[in-house]
Amino acid sequence: MLLAYFIGSPDDLTRAQILKGWFFVSVTSVLLFFMVLQAVRQIESTNELDDLTGLVRHHTFQRELEALLQRRASGQAVVLMYLDIRYFAKLNQAVGFDRADRILSDFAGRLKENYTAGTLLGRLGTDQFAVARLTGDSREQTEAAINQLRQVFDQNARAHNQELESALGVATAPIDAQNAKELMAAASDAVGKAKMANRSVQFFNKALSEEESQREALLEDLREAIDNESLTLAYQPQYDLQSGKINGVEVLIRWNHPELGFVPPDQFIVLAEQNNLIDRISSFVIRKAHQELEESGLLDNLYRVSINISAVEFNSTALMKKLVEEVKKATGLSGKLQMEITETAALSEMGKSTAIIEQLKRSGIRFSIDDFGTGYTSLAILRDLPIDEVKIDRSFIDGLENDPKAHGIVKAIVGMARGFNMICVAEGIETEEQRDTLAQLGCHEAQGYFLARPMDVKKLAEVLKNRRT
Ligand code: G
Ligand code: G
Ligand code: MN
To answer: Model's pTM, two decimal places?
Structure first.
């Protein structure tokens, strides 16, 4: 033996052997301890019981729900209700964690008292509970189940002297979903909508939810298109009504979607505005227009390049600062740049951006009000901000020939623009007669299909060249 070889006396040998024995015992117990600990943890996680309420957690709930769905007989429905306690964070702050915890555990207690064993109860989040049960498949029976749950919630709130609000999301199988996972997704979707719309009860609505997922998909694609710079630009010339020459162009963004084809900007601009992408679109437009017009040598032939800037950007100082940075980088273009304020959102807080607008103004940027006469622009904006141009909305041009009122409005806008020393541009010119009437009324410039459609930069180069010769 190895020990005997190293240790001389038999006494030492015995002691060493005892030590060796203890050593093995300790190692084994440490190993055993960790194995048991792991096993206990595993058991805990498969049971997934919530410490505070004793209710099951997400995974177990889903498993039990699947089993409940299997037990469903024909003519029966499984109704799943998600209950979210509104403003729970506020409650936590107001009464402290301990009392808030007690409100939660008492609510769970009441649920257990009020429902029989056949009803599934779960705690899915801090302030989110789930109740699932078999009912008949009539609407009345579902509503009875909803009322019962709301009553239990209200009783608990009263018992704690709290005014608590709940939001319920309701989904039923087999109408809304085929399996437990889908049913839970449906109830979760519904409770999210209830909260967003400040409603106490919201039923799952498949059509709504599909529309939303389409929007989500479109948004994802838009993000990608912005990342890959696969959006393109179109330019629409603006003509001087006296000389017939092209004074400027309006830059319009285009999205050719790989599957959907041409997606109109009205659709995706709103999406961009709602999802903090609008500044990236404006940056792209400035950068790309600068690059395209410079590379094709067209900048010298244009007095003015107009881009559309969303009111969302004009309403935000931070977004306006980003815009200023982008404009600074486009040196060749910035001297000709005009910003059209498009009124896809109300110009509510433009006051905040006044300083930046004035700064842009001093560096030579011009400003135009788009769709004038139909949007939210008030005359006060024309008075308070350094506006250089108004674009008469297409709808008035449309009525120019047959609608005396539209004619009157156009005449008034032209007069007002001239009075303010602003350039007046008419958009949406589709006939010769419209063009001639506008020239007669003293409108400075015109833009529209009759004169030229939006076109890519190559075509624009041709049109500008033909004009010169
Ligand atoms: O030509 P068209 O269908 O592209 O324009 C539809 C609407 O989208 C118009 O109101 C136009 O002002 C807006 N739009 C077009 N291009 C842009 C753009 O680059 N930025 C913003 N914010 N709006 C744009
Ligand atoms: O709102 P804004 O002015 O940015 O709108 C520009 C939009 O007007 C673009 O979608 C452009 O394609 C469209 N447009 C340009 N000329 C005409 C026209 O003569 N008739 C119509 N109906 N639309 C036009
Ligand atoms: Mn425009």
So the answer is: 0.70
Calpha distance 292→299 (Å, rounded): 9
Work out the pLDDT band at 28, boundaries 50, 70, 90.
Answer: confident
Distance 251 CA to ligand 1 centre (A): 8
Would the CB of 248 count as within 6 Å of ligand 2? no
Higher pLDDT, 454 or 16: 454
454 lines ligand 2 (CB under 6 A): yes
Q: Identify the residue whose C-alpha is closest to ligand 1 atom 19.
A: 253
Give the CA distances from residue 399 to residues 402, 407, 408, 413, in Å, rounded to whole numbers and listed in that order. Answer: 6, 7, 10, 14
Q: Measured from the CB, is residue 319 less than 6 Å from ligand 1?
A: no
| Alpha carbon distance 447, 308 (integer Å) | 15
Is any ligand 1 atom within 6 A of the Cβ of residue 269? yes
Ligand 2 contacts CB of residue 428 (under 6 A): yes
Binding site membership of 343 for ligand 2 (Cβ less than 6 Å):
no
State the distance from the centre of ligand 3 to the C-alpha of 310, rounded, in angstroms.
Answer: 10
Nearest to 385, CA basis, from 404, 399, 367: 367
Helix (H) or strand (E) holding 326: helix 317-329
Is any atom of ligand 2 closer than 6 Å to the C-beta of 455?
no
Do 410 and 400 meet the contact criterion of CB atoms below 8 Å apart? yes
Residue 54 half-sphere exposure, CB side, CA atoms within 13 Å?
9
The token duo for 352 is 């905040």
**Six-digit token string for 247:** 């004074």
In this structure, which long-range contacts are made by residues 455-462, counting pairs with CB atoms below 8 Å and at least 24 apart in sequence? 455/234, 455/235, 455/236, 456/232, 456/233, 456/234, 456/235, 457/233, 457/235, 457/292, 457/293, 457/296, 457/298, 458/296, 460/235, 460/237, 460/249, 460/296, 460/298, 461/296, 461/297, 461/298
pLDDT at 441: 96
Residue 403 gets which letter from DSSP?
-
Which-ligand-closest: CA of 344? Answer: 1
Q: What percentage of the chain reaches a pLDDT higher than 70? A: 93
Q: What's the pLDDT tens digit per position in 79-117?
A: 999 999 999 999 999 999 999 999 999 999 999 999 988
Residue whose CA lies nearest to ligand 2 atom number 13? 428
Tokens of 291: 């690059």
Cα–Cα nearest to 190, from 96, 291, 84: 84
| Residue 16 clears pLDDT 70, i.e. is over it | yes
Report d(CA 311, CA 230) in Å as an integer: 24
Q: How confident is the model over 137-155, as pLDDT tens digits?
A: 788 888 898 999 999 999 9
pLDDT at 347: 63
What is the sign, positive or negative, of the torsion defined by CA atoms of 408, 409, 413, 416?
positive
Report the DSSP beta bridge partners of residue 106: none
